[in-house]
Design brief:
The protein is mainly alpha-helical. It contains 6 helices and 2 strands; from the N terminus they run H-E-H-H-E-H-H-H. It has a two-stranded antiparallel ribbon. The relative contact order is 0.19.
């Protein structure tokens, strides 16, 4: 019986997480940002591709309140649990990462005056926890509303965009922090422990 209501529950939880996600950026206390020391404009293309990946999962959706996997209750349950866990943990991760970055956060790759290399909090586990959180929200949204093929396509586009953003940011970080960043990059994965 609960299996019938799971798609609705997953949808509601994912939408609430999207509201929390948006609120994290829109309602956060605006701190005066130090002047840019250096900016990498190539990351804008990566931002655009990540946006396209979200357009894919939202635009190529299945009938609302239906499971992504039909015919298998255990798979439908597993996908539902994964969607909820991914959404909630992604919002939490993004909130912690933004708090750690403070004034240094920016939509595009940049260094600010007095920029410090973030290696604490979520940055102790992945070098780009906000992108990890964005990936989690993409997966959660895809599991909640999209067709599985659209989710796979969106993941491909997201990884291309993320790779561009990671390269742009890390180019700046390597230039600014040299061996300190190299040592950090050797011990901490970029986005997903054990994968990338």
């Amino acid at each position: 019986m609960i299996i019938q209501f799971l798609p609705t529950l997953v949808f509601v939880v994912v939408m609430l997480c999207w509201i929390a996600f948006a609120g994290t950026f829109l309602l956060r206390k605006k701190q005066p940002s130090p002047p840019d020391q250096k900016r990498e404009h190539g990351s804008l293309f990566g931002v655009a591709l990540q946006g396209v990946s979200y357009g894919i999962v939202w635009g190529l959706h299945r009938r609302l309140f239906t499971p992504i996997v039909s015919g298998s209750k255990p798979l439908a349950l597993a996908a539902s649990v994964l969607a909820v866990v991914a959404a909630v943990s992604s919002v939490w991760l993004i909130m912690k990462a933004l708090k750690t970055l403070g004034k240094a956060w920016s939509l595009t790759a940049r260094l600010v005056e007095g920029h410090q290399l973030a290696t604490e909090g979520p940055y102790a586990y992945v070098r780009h926890p906000i992108y990890t959180g964005l990936l989690g929200m993409l997966v959660a949204t895809g599991l909640a509303v999209s067709h599985w093929a659209a989710l796979l396509g969106a993941l491909f586009v997201f990884f291309v965009g993320t790779r561009i953003r990671v390269r742009s940011e890390e180019k700046l970080l390597r230039g600014a922090f040299g061996e300190q960043f190299e040592a950090y990059a050797r011990r901490v994965p970029a986005i997903l422990p054990g994968l990338y």
